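Working notes for the structural subgroup meeting. M.R. asked for a predicted model of this chain before we commit to crystallization trials. I am recording the input and output together here so anyone reviewing the notebook later can reproduce the run.

Input as submitted:
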Amino acid sequence: MTSPGTWGFDVTVPNVARIYDYLLGGKDNFEADRRAAERLLAAAPETIVTVRENREFLRRAVRELARAGVRQFVDVGAGLPTASNVHEVAREVVPDARVVYVDNDPVVVTHGRALLAGRPGVTVVEGDVRDPAALLADPGLRAVVDFAEPVAVLLLAVLHFVPDESDPEGVVAALRAPLCPGSALVLSHVTNEGSRPEAVSATNSVYDNASARITLRSRERVAGLFAGLTLEEPGLVYAPEWRPERRSPLDPASSFLLVGVGRC
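Returned structure, recorded in token form:
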């Protein structure tokens, strides 16, 4: 869950990636991030469900695509490394799966490169989702990914940090442009449908003072991001409803996270 803006390393400003890390139980965060996350949880405790269900969806979607024969993955807005990263999940199924992690935060990129050093077929590149042409042209990405073969592009909890003026639909269209048949778009996006007004207000307040603002969108807007693709069953649903591995006691809508996998 990362921002497409330019952050810089200021520990006094809550950082989107580090807030997410804290909510997942990670340790790569600072006091400002923890305070912001706790304010968010106090007003919108369902946020913890959102971030955890996002991670579970990532695992299920990557595993399903690997089983279907996809061997290349590009995780845009990857954020700080955490448990069960894309390459770990994919390589449980396809041992030689190739993975590129993309983030615009130089601290995240440096940390990721250090952790992944010495792993052939896995790399971390610096790129901004709002500049898909430069992202796709990155030599590090091109050294790992062959667009003549199917590629899964992952946009997990990142597009709600792309404001309308930055044209999220255009961003997705540009990232899809080089994909060959059999490729996939894996997407998750927080929705404003069914959200409590006070939770929406609290969420906006926290992120207005963080490294990136958040834009909650309707189901219709999120569905439009898959235009021209064939949605895998069960379609565009709340995260807990996408091919669950076990029955959840939660109301799926409590995740406030719409997810889907579209195939080219």
